[in-house]
Design brief:
By secondary structure, the protein is mainly α. The chain has one domain (7-147): Four Helix Bundle (Hemerythrin (Met), subunit A) (Up-down Bundle), CATH 1.20.120. Helices cover 68% and strands 4% of the residues. The protein has helices at residues 7-15, 26-46, 51-73, 82-94, 99-102, 104-116, 127-147, and strands at 19-21, 75-77. It has a two-stranded antiparallel sheet. The N and C termini lie close together (10 Å).
Length: 154
């Protein structure tokens, strides 16, 4: 059965070059989720010694979780679509019902960008930032893992 929610958005993203079709791969999706789990664990361990690096890993865990869902469908974001395209593609297909789970990704992305391209007048990352956002990232990972069995190749 074909996944219909968000199909028009995905078709437009494909036509605009923000997404590309690739062979659907459950194996690649599972590998991305395994990397995400490792990134989350490492971020939590490194939070006190290197909060900025830990936050980057935390964000990458969320990003790879979203990418896993698309890989499973045979979709991959392009450089034109970027990380925002990743969020747009997943949101189009899964919000609702999973808006509360995936919505923190955009905040995580903005925070990570602020750390990568800093305004030196703003405070830097703290270990508390990693601790506060770890639950949101874990929820994204869990949802991504569960959804793999439900979403068909695009």
């Amino acid at each position: 059965m074909r996944w219909e929610q968000g199909r028009a958005v995905i078709d437009k993203m494909l036509a605009d070059g923000h997404l590309q079709k690739v062979p659907p791969s459950r194996e690649r999706a599972e590998a991305l989720l395994a990397q995400a789990r490792n990134h989350l664990a490492t971020a939590q361990q490194a939070a006190s010694d290197d909060p900025e690096g830990a936050y980057a890993l935390l964000y990458d865990a969320a990003r790879k979780s979203l990418a896993a869902m698309l890989e499973n469908q045979g979709l991959r974001v392009t450089s034109r679509g970027g990380h925002l395209g990743l969020y747009d593609a997943v949101s189009a297909q899964l919000v609702p019902p999973l808006g509360a789970v995936f919505r923190p990704f955009e905040r995580l992305r903005r925070h990570r960008n602020a750390l990568e391209y800093p305004d030196f007048e703003e405070p830097r990352a703290q270990s508390a930032d990693v601790a506060e956002d770890s639950d949101a990232v874990e929820a994204i990972m869990v949802a991504a893992g569960r959804i793999l069995d439900e979403m068909s190749p695009f």
